[in-house]
Amino acid sequence: MARIEDVHHHVIFRHPEHCVNQIMARTLSNGDILAVFNEERYPFHHDSGQTLITRSKDGGVSWSEPKIVLPWTDVTGNWDCGICETSDGELIVNLTITAFFKRGVEPEQPSWRCNPWTERWGDWTWAFKTQGWLGTFVLKSSDGGETWSEPIPCNVRPLKHGGCRVGCWQLPSGPLLMGLYGRIRGYGEEGEGETTRSALIRSDDGGANWEYYSTIAYDPASIIDFEEPAVLRLACGRLVCFMRTHVNPSSDAKNMVMTVSEDDGFSWTPPKWTNIWGYPADMIALDDGRYLMVYGYRRPPYGVRGIVSEDGLTWDVADEFVIREGGVPFSSLKDKPASSLGGEAAYGVAAGAINNSNPGVFQHIGYPTVAQASDGAAVCCYHEWDDGPEPLQFVQCTRFRV
After folding, report:
1. How far is 305 from 321, CA to CA, in rounded Å?
2. N or C: which end of the chain has fewer CB within 10 A?
3. What is the pLDDT of residues 276-333, one digit of tens each?
4. Which residues contact 206 (CB under 8 A, 6 or more apart)?
């Protein structure tokens, strides 16, 4: 396993009551590192929060007080944000918006579940069951992120929904591309007898309008999920994409797959299994001509790992290095409900000691992103759980040289 040097960890943001997670960062043309991340509205992961933005002017050592890009409301939330700076200096944040679709008829009996609770409606966990994705949106800023446009809906048809992972990026010729994952026959992340596919949508007018552009990977047998695409443009002009995978019906996470485009994303080679286990990934081109990929590692000992490639096409787990180890707490004073839109009760965790081999919702660590600081250091941002009595997710970064 390869080694990295000059390793330092820096907290980006902790909230005293809410989980914060799923961060994405990029280095701007002025050398600042800009990061967007999700603040949950609860002390657990639920994909119903709001998008925050923070800036580092010293290569990831310190970060500004976060500002809200798009706030949550009583009936909407947003998550899975990404950031992009275009050639003319405009900033674009992409994200997913969800709605609670609150009931219009007051319940006649107690819910089968418990919490959250309001004075008027009592137990309103029905909102978890009626929550639905409204779609993929972008917001634009022409003043460095001080103010943002209203959300602009993205056309992801024929997909019913398009989940984001990282930000969009701009081709040298000007068009914007955004990587998505979704399904054609149903909303949400599972069901309908169809696995998820990864795809690109494209905008030729600076992000005002979007259209389905290409399918990156899809299994017509609906056995393999191809999710959360991370795309890197090489110096030779090729696009390389790594994707998270799950094999059904077990939903076990398998090794990442890689695919390549020779024509700016219009067509892709068949997905090729790599020997790298972990998810999801993010990649950048380093100043010295090499390429760096980081990815979450959600099995013991957990954490975040990385690999450097000389050419961007050859990646080998033999070159893997550990950026951060751990991130799963030892115990919790309270029960933690299931994650991701309510989920099933089996994913929740009872109060007490946490089983490191099967930590339920507490395995939700990582989601790393990487940028390169002006001094050459790599800055990998990610989330993990603290070890408080009631553990909360927080975001931090690791600076290192490779």
Report:
1. 6
2. N
3. 999 999 999 999 999 999 999 999 999 999 999 999 999 999 999 999 999 999 999 8
4. 86, 90, 140, 176
